[in-house]
DNA sequence: ACCTGAACACCGTTCAAGT
DNA sequence: ACCTGAACACCGTTCAAGT
């Protein structure tokens, strides 16, 4: 009945590595290498330990568990996002750059897609980004809860766009599916809905990267238009 | 080098259960019970087998692997979505109802959040829903690729909103974290960003379910406004 | 302070064997 | 046609023991 205490990597001091042995940074860097090269499912404590020339269980000295290690890795990559200071650019440009920046980071590190929403984004890099977005929206004129809502709308759209995007291309890539056989499956599965099939055919006939870009730009423009309208009235 | 053939549960006939033994339906229903009661991570082939009074490995006669079993379960729940026929309602109402319907389904079955984007949504229920959305947007006036983009914008927003929503409350619920200790962590982690902390305080001070509802409604209205504007001009 | 190895309690899946 | 059990190759994590 008594509620458990919530704890977090971000409010606990890392154990201090004087000079010897492993450091938390080293571990996170090695984890990122595995994640980038082989994906989320490929990261195991044993494999990570081996890569560092240590036993798997040694890692537990530096990190409470795998979940917290992933929190550290998750935050790390948001450091790559370059966001224009909302002071100089207009809020709409800031939102645009923010959304595209997030998307690029996720496409560069597809494994994050599997972590989004699973962990609190309260690491330093996540917070830095959140603060810049908040500042931009505040300058735009949003106040109080609407400041949150507006920011949530943008990030929700980005996450919801990019998660399936990543899943499709990384599944297709790592399993090397034949594109034509995928189309064939869709044709027969959706045989009852000819218009849906027609849409899928046109969609897949073009350069996939370009279509996805346009898809993203279209939706983002909708969200930003909606926000703008909420400011005017 | 030769690309692998893509296969799918949806285009393969289920092995026919004459009268005896397990059926695929039975397995999927039992899986859904475990998923609803205990969540995605709690579903294992062994546990599912035991629930059905069978060996874990018996399941592999009816289902190729766990992934395909999850595809079946994933599609099943979209059957609960009731969508107004776009013929009678206006497209904006259809979009609104569609988005809220999706959200409700996900909140009722939080485990789906972990599957979104991970599998092709080409089961019968998913397709039925997709077709209704497509029809609504077509009637609204969208044509060609914009029909896809408009639909993708709506679903992206819904998924991106609901995934973190589900993650937070289900993590908080199942681990029974003390709400005050979570606020405390945020306060110290975000100590450098007083405005961000202030936002979080206001956000968490209110009835969480109501705030999330408003958050969702706000963002959805933005997306729909944006779509509307793209129709007019 | 840091690391190790053995051990525990799990996984998904394959496959020869049974009925 | 359907199910079983043993087995394989893994997991994350704990903990007493080492240095």
UniProtKB/TrEMBL annotation, chains A, B:
Domain HTH tetR-type intervals: 21-81
- InterPro entries for this protein: DNA-bd_HTH_TetR-type_CS, Homeodomain-like_sf, HTH-type_TetR-like_transc_reg, HTH_TetR, Repressor_TetR_C, Tet_transcr_reg_TetR, Tet_transcr_reg_TetR-rel_C_sf
Q: Which residues bind DNA?
A: 44-63
**One Pfam family recorded for the sequence:** TetR_C_1
Reading the lineage from the top rank, the first entry is: Bacteria
Keyword Magnesium applies: no
Task: Cite the entry's keywords alphabetically.
Answer: DNA-binding, Repressor, Transcription, Transcription regulation
Name of the protein in question: AcrR family transcriptional regulator
Classification from the root reads: Bacteria, Bacillati, Actinomycetota, Actinomycetes, Streptosporangiales
């Amino acid at each position: 009945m008594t509620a458990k205490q919530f704890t977090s990597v971000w409010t606990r001091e890392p154990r201090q590595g004087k000079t010897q042995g492993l450091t938390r940074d080293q571990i996170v860097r090695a984890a990122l290498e595995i994640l980038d090269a082989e994906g989320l499912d490929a990261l195991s404590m044993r494999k990570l330990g081996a890569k560092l020339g240590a036993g798997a269980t040694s890692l537990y000295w530096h990190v409470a568990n795998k979940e917290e290690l992933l929190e550290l890795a998750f935050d790390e990559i948001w450091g790559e996002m370059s966001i224009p200071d909302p002071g100089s650019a207009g809020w709409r440009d800031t939102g645009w750059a923010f959304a595209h920046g997030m998307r690029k980071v996720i496409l560069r590190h597809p494994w994050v897609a599997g972590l989004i929403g699973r962990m609190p984004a309260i690491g330093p890099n996540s917070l830095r980004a959140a603060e810049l977005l908040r500042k931009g929206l505040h300058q735009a004129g949003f106040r109080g809860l609407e400041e949150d809502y507006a920011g949530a709308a943008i990030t929700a759209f980005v996450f919801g766009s990019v998660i399936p995007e990543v899943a499709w291309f990384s599944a297709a890539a790592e399993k090397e599916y034949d594109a034509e056989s995928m189309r064939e499956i869709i044709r027969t599965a959706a045989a009852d809905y000819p218009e849906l099939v027609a849409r899928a055919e046109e969609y897949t006939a073009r350069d996939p990267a370009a279509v996805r870009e346009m898809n993203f730009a279209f939706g983002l423009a909708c969200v930003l238009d909606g926000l703008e309208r909420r400011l005017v009235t």
